[in-house]
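Blinded run. Sample ID left blank on purpose so nobody reads anything into the name before looking at the predicted structure. Input follows.
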Amino acid sequence: MNYVMLIGRTGREPEIKNTPSGSKVVTLSLGVDRKGKDGKKETDWIDCTSWGKTADVVEQYVKKGEKVCVCGSLQTRTWQGQDGQNRKAYFVLVDRVELLGAPKPQNNEQSGDVPFEV
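Blinded prediction complete.
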């Protein structure tokens, strides 16, 4: 079973792109703390990618520094670098995101139906 759940803070604003077919894809970098050597806190930066409704929620509500929980599957991306060497990167393909802090109203919204989970 390939299932990943991470809690952390976003390290930068989510990056939004549209594919030529019109699909939206949103990527973010999630800082996740763990115990390192000698019990000191270390942060791993995990790339996360979302599509569809999940991408819409991330685009609208997730900002730099937000604490979020992402759930999905671990995926690999492979390519050949300019030097001819094969490269591999891991990322989480997000199918669910939960906002773990109080949402900040945008565009002068006072309240309303704010999705905390997708």
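Unblinding after everyone has recorded impressions. Residues 4-99 form a domain with the OB fold (Dihydrolipoamide Acetyltransferase, E2P) fold (CATH 2.40.50.140).
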